[in-house]
Write a structure and sequence with these properties.
- The longest helix is centred in the middle third of the chain and has 31 residues.
- The chain has 20 helices and 24 strands.
- The protein has three domains: 200 residues, Heat Shock Protein 90 (2-Layer Sandwich); 166 residues, Ribosomal Protein S5, domain 2 (2-Layer Sandwich), CATH 3.30.230.10; 123 residues, Rossmann fold (3-Layer(aba) Sandwich).
- With 659 residues, it is α+β, with helices and mostly antiparallel strands.
- Helix 3 runs antiparallel to helix 5 and helix 15 crosses helix 19.
Length: 659
């Protein structure tokens, strides 16, 4: 029992955070993190409000502008946030929405039947995490304005002008707080990807993105909606038929589904609830899959496409090979669950989706027998490959029957058994693997070296994938199985870290590894267990001081610091007259080593720069947009050459960066 005097703990020890102070104190609780991901979430929160106006039938346009001063403007043509006096708060409703958590029209079903946003925190959190925010509202032919500093109003809401016509709306401009975020520079492509996605999901809304920093501009409007979305996702695949599309409503739950089959081997299903990307799926996905399997099976047997004496039984996996689908449902009171709170839990949605898909798909198959035959023939081939894969897995099990863990011989395992405190480095090459084994902390770090480039799983069936020795080693080491046997809870490590060379070959190997995890162990990514190591590209030595740089920009910064002349000039701009240089043009006394591979680092250097949890940088792989990830993997690893060339040319400047 403690000897502390209970009188030392009293009311004065209870801290009350007023207004939006709690958000500034613990921002990650509200936006996930304060990295680039959290920064872009700010835009999403404001845009979601504009999309909610569209869902309610009052808005057809959203304009996002990335301004030259680092701020962002989001403008819509909705009804405009109310500005009249709030009956309880005794202040303008605009100020209430901007400064009070969980305040807004989304909680009043007479204003919004459905709404997006996972947590209902909305624009008030954006306000709290901004250095300043300005909001302009057009309502009743009057223009209202209010400004805030770190979530606190500078003055009361005031009228600043009038306008003619019926163009109502809200315009929000905010500058992220540099004391909150590590990096406050918005990425055009990241913002564009979410706006493109929203334009597909809301076919009556035009999404416009402008970048005042370099003049770039894109407009997204897709009259085909989900049909266009599926075509976009399958752009580099060979579809077997035109997209199948259903739109219906049951029990006040509108459902939209578009899907098609291609000659690929992977399943690419993307689900949304009220425009939220439910990357962990949920009841709407279960309902779709159940109806798909049952309806195709019933049609196949009814029409003699599967013989009664057929030894192979078609399963859901068979009907999902080569399937690309987008499922969008609107739910009045969505319940989210799962590791990332992006899994729909409403049980009633399963039966609604199952009923609608069953009825609509049955009608479609009866009216399009040639398409039905193509899909079922493909599914039968998938079943044969699945059976071959099952036999391959059984063979692997039999070979390792005497070894309960059947761990690969080249794995240097860790001594701790608790997965949450263990991590495995999948390392490119035996040389780097040797350094990593010597430099690691043996208690919690395991090392698995792999040779060369693994199989491109984007172009292979599962039975062929299981024949690849390097992939076999990864599956055995991770311990979660694969295919029908995959269970992420059985993973032997809490972190899986991909460590490849910082060159073109290393980037290719890393992409092959990521493709494997995305296609066959996606849940490990969803659960935040997959990471990318960041080895340095350069070692800079001056006298006894040794510094590591991870890219060319960082190298320039180190060189500037080392030079006597500290003017802001890059290494290329320094002339011989200003600084005495060696034959390679580098300042004398400074030795620059560019690492061609991880194996060139000794164990101590590898530990200090890339493996020590106290000093290393690792990038967590996440699925902020599963549709975008699918598109990138298909572009980089698929058969079409031209889209890959265009992608590489566009992103060439990022060749040595993981973004």
């Amino acid at each position: 029992m403690s000897n502390n005097n209970s009188n030392d703990y009293s009311a004065k020890n209870i801290n009350v955070l007023k207004g939006l102070e709690a958000v500034r104190k613990r921002p990650a609780m509200y936006i996930g993190d304060v990295s680039t991901r959290g920064l872009h979430h700010l835009i999403n929160e404001v845009v979601d409000n504009s999309i909610d106006e569209a869902l309610a039938g009052y808005n057809d346009r959203v304009i996002v502008t990335l301004n030259t001063d680092g701020s962002v403007t989001v403008e819509d043509r909705g009804r405009g946030i109310p500005v009249d006096m709030h009956p309880i708060e005794k202040k303008s409703a605009l100020e209430v929405v901007m400064t009070v958590l969980h305040a807004g029209g989304k909680f009043d079903k007479s204003s919004y039947k459905v709404s997006g946003g996972l947590h209902g925190v909305g624009v008030s959190v954006v306000n709290a995490l901004s250095e300043w925010l300005k909001v302009e509202v057009r309502r009743d032919n009057k223009i209202y304005f209010q400004e805030y500093r770190k979530g606190v109003p500078v003055e009361n809401v005031k009228q600043i002008g009038t306008y003619k016509g019926d163009h109502t709306g809200t315009k929000v401009t905010f500058l992220p707080d540099k004391t909150i975020f590590k990096n406050t520079k918005f990425n055009f492509d990241t913002v564009a990807e979410r706006m493109r996605e929203l334009a597909y999901l809301n076919k009556d809304v035009t999404m416009i993105l402008k970048d005042e920093r370099d003049g770039a501009e894109e407009t997204f409007r897709f009259k085909g909606g989900l049909i266009d979305f599926v075509k976009y996702l399958d752009e580099q695949r060979n579809p077997l038929h035109k997209p199948i599309y259903f739109e219906a409503e049951k029990d006040n739950t509108p459902i939209e589904i578009a899907f098609e089959y291609s000659d690929s081997f992977s399943e690419n299903v993307h689900t949304y609830v009220n425009n939220i990307n439910t990357i962990e799926g949920g009841t709407h996905l279960v309902g779709f899959r159940t109806a798909l399997t049952r309806t195709f099976n019933n049609y196949a047997y009814k029409n003699g496409l599967i013989k009664e004496n057929n030894k192979i039984t078609l399963t859901g996996d068979d009907f999902r090979e080569g399937l690309t689908a987008v499922i969008s449902v609107k739910v009045m009171e969505p319940q989210f669950e799962g590791q990332t709170k992006t899994k729909l839990g409403n049980s009633e949605v399963k039966s609604i989706v199952e009923t609608i898909v069953g009825e609509k798909l049955s009608e479609y198959l009866e009216e399009n027998p040639s398409v039905a035959r193509k899909i079922i023939e493909k599914s039968l081939k998938a079943a044969e490959a699945r059976e071959a894969a099952r036999k391959a897995r059984e063979l692997v099990r039999r070979k390792n029957a005497l070894d309960s863990l059947h761990l690969p011989g080249k794995l240097a395992d860790c001594s701790i058994n608790d997965p949450e405190h263990c991590e495995i480095y999948i390392v490119e090459g035996d040389s780097a693997g040797g350094s990593a084994k010597q430099g690691r902390d043996r208690r919690f770090q395991a090392i698995l070296p792999i040779k060369g480039k693994i199989l491109n799983v984007e172009k292979a069936k599962l039975n062929k994938i299981l024949e690849n020795q390097e992939i076999q080693a990864m599956i055995a080491a991770i311990g979660a199985g694969i295919g029908e046997d995959f269970d992420p809870s059985k993973a032997r490590y809490g972190k899986i870290i991909l460590m490849t060379d910082a060159d073109v070959d290393g980037s290719h190997i890393r992409t092959l590894l990521l493709t494997f995890f995305y296609r066959h162990m996606k849940e490990l990514i969803t659960l935040g267990k997959v990471f990318i190591a960041q080895p340095p590209l350069y070692k800079i030595k001056k006298g006894k001081e040794e510094v590591f740089a991870f890219d060319d920009d960082e190298l320039d910064q180190v060189l500037k610091r080392f030079k006597a002349d500290s003017k802001s000039k890059s290494k290329q701009e320094v002339s011989e007259q200003e600084v005495e240089t060696d034959e390679e043009g580098h300042p004398k006394g400074i030795v620059i080593t560019r690492y061609k591979g991880l194996g060139e680092m000794n164990p101590e250097q590898l530990w200090n720069t890339t493996m020590n949890p106290e000093t290393r940088t690792v990038l967590q792989v996440n699925l902020e947009s599963a549709a975008a990830a699918d598109k990138i993997f298909e572009t980089l690893m698929g058969d079409a050459v031209e889209p890959r060339r265009e992608f590489i040319e566009k992103h060439a400047k990022y060749a040595n960066l993981d973004v």
